[in-house]
Amino acid sequence: MRSRSSSSFLITGIAASSLVLAGCATASTPTGDAGDNALIQIVASTDVYGDIASRVGGEFAEVTSIISGSAQDPHSYEATAQDQLTLSKADLVIENGGGYDPFIDSMLDASGDKNVVVVNASEASGLIEGGEGGPDDHADETEEEHAEEEGDAHADETEEEHAAHIEGFNEHVWYSFHGVEKIAAEIAHELGEIDEANAAAYEENYEAFAAEIAELEERAESMRSLVAGQGAAVTEPVPNYLLEEIGFENMTPSDFSEAVEEGTDVSPAVLQETLSLFDDGSVILLAYNEQTSGPITEQVRTAAQDAGVAVVSLTETLPDGEDYISWMSGNLDAIEDALA
Length: 340
Known about the structure:
Signal peptide: 1-22
Number of domains: 2
Low-confidence stretches: 1-36, 130-165
Helix content: 40-55%
Number of helices: 15
Largest sheet: 4 strands, parallel
Strand content: 5-15%
Order of helices and strands: HEHEHEHEHHHHHHEHEHHEHEH
Structural class: alpha/beta
Radius of gyration: 21 Å
Distance between the termini: 46 Å
Coiled coil: 199-226
Subcellular location: Cell envelope
Pfam family, one: ZnuA
Mean pLDDT: 82
Shape: globular
Protein name: Zinc/manganese transport system substrate-binding protein
Strand order of the largest sheet: 2-1-3-4
């Protein structure tokens, strides 16, 4: 079972609401017998992880995504009493972690449920410093031994020291194919622990999903010859893992992409440094996040277009009607078409 970090964030009214809701909500208790219609209840912070969980859980799981579509920003999302009720019934919770969706930790703290299983995608992906690579890392541990190990790992940390571990970390781990494969493996592992009777089905579902991820990785690898280590720019660090996998070198000033992501002002000097990337031929592609656009990012896109640099829109959440595999396949198509 993955440990979860404590959060100092508080959701207004959630703690009080949870006391009221506790009287009318009971956690589901799956028996592992598909015949009794007791589905494993999975709650995911976003529909990206909801889709991955649905692939792994298959017919034995019911998945609820707190955030669906592009209208809400997980960084600043404020959970509702209904969200808290939904989470109170979960057998498994999937959060991105890394500072991306702190509302999940706030709800977990408010619920007071120490038994719910939590998959932290940033840790499971192996991309975060000190992150865990997947179930094989702890295959021979008992649950008690793993819990003790997790506790020891952070026993001497202050809250500030723990926060420093994600400083500079790109939390958009779902854009890493290898990371997503590890996340899916961890979900399968935890579902098998919760529902041992159907553990083989979860493993089979994971392997089918992993095979499709491998095809995406092969496509990304095949595109390296088109890129040959050339530069790319981004308006926000969302697609960086994908661009790196294809072979791009990210030339964007970090102060620019971080300011756009955090909604803070971009200094004139940093903006000029970013715009100059298109004048001197440093980059051949601009990855544009349509979900965080504004006057500054529009200025960057216009500069790229005027310089003849290819512009590709890469979103942060699942487009309507897409699943994870079709979404990422479409992203690769768009980049390949732009390079051609």
